[in-house]
Amino acid sequence: MEIFSSQRTFHRSINLIPFYSIREYIFSGSMTIKKFAFSNVVGNIVILIPLGTYLSVFKKNKKVITNLLIICIVSLSVEIIQGLFGIGASDIDDIILNCSGGLIGILGYKFLAFLLRDEKKIRTVITLLSAIGLPVILYLLFMIRLRL
């Protein structure tokens, strides 16, 4: 609800230079920045892995490039909204990392399809992984954020 507060100040930060933020994180001497960098990089990758997997499961068109394009559009839309509303920072590195995470999800589905060769079995495995894995991943991301 902070976004709608009349006391809110807008802070817009936009980075359009690929890998600039990641380079800054790597070469920083501060442990606080390195911890933030780790949670930011890992979080941006992990957050869209499920989208890549679910797109592959639920769409009839299972082409990697089509699903990756959808993921890139979703990520770009989120970054544009962040820039327009002054929420956080808009960063091209976030889009690159989000798309990487989505690609991991798509390739994970393809790997399961190669191993199992049965759509029903693939859906069952993904359902089990989602029921167990997503809460664990969200918990870990939350704990990483709290330790900063």
- Give me the number of helical elements: 6
Strand order of the largest sheet: 1-2
Shape: globular
Low-confidence stretches: none
| Average pLDDT figure | 86
Give me the strand/helix succession.
Answer: EHHHHEHH
Terminal Cα separation, in Å? 23 Å
Strand content: under 5%
Please provide a written account of the structure.
This protein is mainly alpha-helical and 148 residues long. The chain contains 6 helices and 2 strands. It has helices at 20-27, 31-46, 49-58, 64-85, 92-116, 119-146, and strands at residues 14-15, 90-91. The protein has a two-stranded parallel sheet with strand order 1-2.
Question: Which helices and strands, and how do they pair?
Answer:
Layout: E1 14-15, H1 20-27, H2 31-46, H3 49-58, H4 64-85, E2 90-91, H5 92-116, H6 119-146
Parallel strand pairs: 1-2
Which terms summarize this structure?
mainly alpha; 148 residues; globular; single chain
Condensed summary:
The protein has 148 residues and is mainly alpha-helical. Helices cover 74% and strands 3% of the residues.
